[in-house]
Write a structure and sequence with these properties.
Layout (H helix, E strand, L loop, with lengths): L10 E6 L4 E5 L7 H7 L5 H20 L17
Antiparallel strand pairs: 1-2
């Protein structure tokens, strides 16, 4: 909740129940990156470089804050239009 970076979805609230955890995050209307990539007919080098730069920027910020993701894959990356 304390992370503040343009390439990291903001967490607003965390709820914990006996057998579940709920996390309220900012709305990212584009869905996950895996679905976005799968639905593209063509994917330019410039688009790929932009996405990669944003990913590395966010991960670098997290690491500097002592936070590690541990499961980075397109299915776990939200895409915002």
């Amino acid at each position: 909740m304390e992370l503040d970076h343009p390439n990291i979805a903001k967490i607003y609230e965390v709820f914990e129940w006996k057998n579940a955890l709920g996390i309220v995050i900012e709305l990212c209307e584009g869905g996950d990156l895996f679905t976005y990539i799968k639905n593209q007919k063509k994917f330019s080098e410039a688009a790929t470089a932009s996405i990669f730069q944003q990913l590395i920027s966010g991960v670098n910020y997290m690491h500097k804050q002592g936070v590690f993701h541990r499961d980075i894959k397109p299915e776990n990356l939200l895409y915002d239009n």
